[in-house]
Each structure stands twice: as C-alpha cells, then as structure tokens.
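Board work, copied verbatim: Cupin type-1 domain-containing protein
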Amino acid sequence: MAKLLPLSLSLCFLLFSGCFAFREQAHAQQQHQNDFKCQLQRLNAHKPDHRIESEGGFIETWNPNTKPFQCAGVALSRCTLQRNALRRPFYTNAPQQIYIQQGSGIFGMIFSGCPETFEEPQQSQSHKAQDRHQKVYRFREGDLIAVPTGVAFWMYNDEDTPVVAVSLIHTDSFQNQLDQMPRRFYLAGNQEQEFAQYQHSQKGKQQEEENDGSNIFSGFTPEFLEQALGVDRKTVRNLQGENEDEEKGAIVKVEGGLSVTAPPMRKQQQRPQEEEEEEDDEEKSRSKGKGSHKSKNGIEETICTMRLRHNIGQTSSPDFFNPQAGSITTATSLDFPALFLLKLSAQFGSLRKNAMLVPHYNLNANSIVCVLQGRALMQVVNCTGDRVFDGELQEGEVLIVPQNFAVAAKSQSNNFKYVAFKTHDRPKTGTLAGRNSLLNALPEEVIQHSFNLRSEQARQIKNNNPFNFLVPPRQESQRRDVA
Ligand SMILES: *[C@@H]1O[C@H](CO)[C@@H](O)[C@H](O)[C@H]1NC(C)=O
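↓ predict structure ↓
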C-alpha cells in the first residue's frame, strides 16, 4: 500500500502531464493554423453551402471556417425575402455591409439613445395610442447599406420582386471583441441563427444535434421580463418565441402587409443618385436652417440621422467608365461617411464581353468578390509568383482575393456584374498595367534594366496600353505597335 501510493501518484502525474502536453500540442496546432491562415496553396470559387428556409424567404450562408474566409476575416450570407416578408430584427458582433442585389423595400436600424423621430398623426377619436419610432429608410437595387456593430437591423419587402441582399460581416474587425465566429442575436422568434451550425462542426460535434435556437429574450425567466416590461405572462411567452405554432424562421410573412409610419414611396425609383443625394442634403440643410432660430437639440448633427444607404449600382456617375469596356463605382468613407465607422467599403463593377480588369492588387484590404450576373475568367497570383486561382467565376460564386495578391479578370458574358466588399474604408488599388500603373510610374531605364529589355521595348511597356483600369476587347485596329 505504501508502495502503491507513490506509484499511483507518479502515474497520475504522468497522465496529467501527458494530458497537458496533448492540450498544448493541440493549442499550438491551432495557433500554427491561425498563423498561416493566409498561406493559401489554392483559392476556390465558393458557393453557399447551407440554406435555411423561413416562412417568408430563406437565408444562404458560405462556410466561414474555410481558409480563405478565415484569412480575410469575414463571413458571408445572402437573404431572399418574398413579398410582404419581414426579416426579424437582430444585431451582430461585427460591422456589416449589405448589398441589395435585387428588389426594393424598407429597413430600419435601432441606435440606442436616439429619439423616435417618425410619428403617427394624432387622432383625437381613436383610442389607439400614437406610435413613434426611429427613422425608417427606403432601399432599392444597387444600394449598399452600412450596419454598425451591435446595431439592431430589420428589413421588409413591400413589392412583388423578391429582395436579394448579400451581407458581409467583418468578424476580424477590431470592433468585434469576441472570437472570429459571426453571431446573430435575434430579438424575436425561435430559429437557429444561420452561422450556428458552423460553430457545431468546428467543435467537432454531431450535426444532428439540432439546437433550436431562440432569441435573446428566451433565456430570461418570465418573472424578470414581466417586471421589466410590465406585461403579462402570455405576452412574455410570445416575446420568448414560445407561442409559435410552427417554426417561422428568421423571415416572417406579414399578412396584409406591414404598415409603418414612413414617407410615401417615390414614384420614379430610377432617379439618378446625385439627384437623390442632393435632395437629401437639401432636406438636411433646410431643417438645420429652420432650427437655427430655436435652440438646437443637436440630433441633426449626430449618428441618429446619418445616411445609412448609398447607391453604387448602375449609377449615372461611375468612377471608371469606358463604353466599350464597362464601369466601376466604389463607395468609400469619403462619399459614404457611415463607412468610416465600419472601416469597410465596396465596389460595383460591370464589364462587357471580353473586356478586362487589368492585373492589379489591393494595397490595404482583402477583397471579397461576389458575382451578381454573368461569368468571367479570373486569375490570382501570390507573392511567390504562383497562380493560386485560374478559372471561371459564375453568378452566385465568391472569390476571396487576399491583400496584395495580384488579380485580373476577363469578362465572358455581355453583362458581367460583381460587387467586391473590401476590408478598409478607403481601399487603395495599384494597377500593374496600363495608364497610371506601377510600370508606367517607373523610369524607362529602370524598366529596361530590370527586365533586360531594349529601350523601345521598355517604351512599349509604358505606352502601348492607353487604358486606365478597364481594357476594352482587343481589336486588330486598336493595336498600335510602336515599332
Ligand atoms: C504560393 O502558391 C504556391 C502554389 O500553390 C504555394 O506552393 C506557395 O506556398 C505559395 N506561396 C506562399 C508564400 O504562400
């Protein structure tokens, strides 16, 4: 017995240290994986790999645990809303950009502490109390919507065309102080949040372990909520998502349509952006002027009335335009100040058949390219000069182009359209060919000796492509050989 004790002690010690060593090894392995998450042998075109049906539509997600997504520190999902469908309010642990690929409707965001500036008219006869709520915005195709971290968001489709909204969450943002897992906190319903399944699979648990998610009210005891809201038990049950006959999901159908206090829909939806923005600005300055003789409450100047949508779709004033090649429009924090909070930006581009985006790279951002329409050949090259992607990117597919990796594209259809989300609010691009490119900025002699060329060849490299960023289809007549 006396001999057994030390033996078992040492055995125990051995076991423990073994266990610790194992854990350390696992930890180191994960650390190792994290350290090299951008060591990408090969990039892929990603399709959504999961779809959750709801009463009023569905949500598709891309697996955020794949290496390119981990490298870029982002999570992507796409939500489709049928007519009269309401996406229940939720907030997210990281900043988010939503691009409206199709359709139109209204959305709202709840900023804690901001006043309820939309008021229902007072009706003296009615017993119904007057409703007030925070600002409601209208959105249309081509809009980029900025959703700051932790701000509750909802949206609604009031038209026949289904709304398709692509949403990018920047989980690697400094504003997310949790881990890299995208987390939706639903205010209502009892659906599982759309990224939860990836968390399960990451932990190595079984997929079947159906975790019927609930909303943030569900976890509190009814007594707490009864007192906090001053309502009865039955109402509390609804708040907790418990009185639903069947699971409606994150998108619910509103029978007869939603009625919120909002200005009437504008007739000409396709008005050019400038007009719309000018009008917005005009309205703002008018309200400021009016208030100037009274004491200001200051809300005109704050986040409460900030512009949260900006159209980058087919606009009349793109940033790059060539009728034979296509156009590109970028929203940065300079033209869309809300992006300053998010530290994100986005670019919309459309290319004619056989037109090219010259080889270029993003100096300060990862780029998440989502194809909206058509298809294009794309090539991506890493720092060792290896082609890590060489293939066709089609509608609905996503390619992640990490920072500084070089990328070029050639459209294969007459109307190739994409939106590229970027992880910087003022992204910079460096081109490797054409006017204003890196090569153009180098002295001819440096080119000559760096590439071992004759001087006229160096001059050709600098001068032969007169285009900026978009190169039209190559035609024999356009070849101007400086021989
Ligand atoms: C570049 O890509 C090649 C080909 O996949 C790969 O072998 C190499 O490790 C990559 N280089 C770096 C530094 O990631």
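The radius of gyration is 27 Å.
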